[in-house]
Amino acid sequence: MAGWGNTFRKALNDLVYKGSAFTSPNGVIYIGLHIGDPGPDGQTANEVSGNGYQAKATAASDWNVGTLADPSVVTNANAITFATPTGSWGLVTYFSQWNHLTNRAPANFIGANALLVPVTVSSGVPLSFPPSSLTHSFDSV
């Protein structure tokens, strides 16, 4: 499963169809890294942990405006660089988006997508995603 999380999709539906309040990430989205698919509720059993890992905060300016294409796609506008690992993080295959740095409850999960190119992260080698290498599609399910 790659795409929007269940809680986030429900919040969007409630906003559109019921006019319910929508809690926006307010331009701060935390990027997590996973060695497997985090699923529709952001299960974190496969999120990288230890060895200097911490999710990365991004600002609105770090992201391009969504395209008008079908499907609409958002990509990172700037390089997104994580802290230097103090040990192996393994083969990272997915990135996730959260509205909280450390609280990994499903209510804080926005979504996830597979990396365009999986990457093995080794000790001492910082992981950086160049512009346009993190891609999220609005029609991802």
Keywords:
141 residues, mainly beta, five-stranded antiparallel sheet
Report on the architecture of this protein.
By secondary structure, this protein is mainly beta. The protein has one domain (3-137). It contains one helix and nine strands. The chain has one helix spanning 6-18; strands at residues 3-4, 29-34, 56-58, 73-75, 80-81, 90-98, 109-121, 128-129, 135-137. It has a five-stranded antiparallel sheet. A two-stranded antiparallel ribbon has the order 4-9. A two-stranded antiparallel ribbon has the order 5-8. The longest helix is centred in the first third of the chain and has 13 residues, at 6-18.
End-to-end gap: 7 Å
Main β sheet profile: 5 strands, antiparallel
Beta-strand percentage?
25-35%
Q: pLDDT below 50 for ≥5 consecutive residues: which ranges?
A: none
Structural class: mainly beta
Number of helices: 1
Assembly state of the chains shown = single chain
Lateral arrangement of strands in the main beta sheet: 1-7-6-2-3
Number of strands: 9
Element order: H for helix, E for strand: EHEEEEEEEE
**Radius of gyration over alpha carbons?**
15 Å
* Count of distinct structural domains: 1
Shape: globular
Short description:
Helix content is 9%, strand content 30%. With 141 residues, the protein is mainly beta.
Structural topology:
Blueprint: E1 3-4, H1 6-18, E2 29-34, E3 56-58, E4 73-75, E5 80-81, E6 90-98, E7 109-121, E8 128-129, E9 135-137
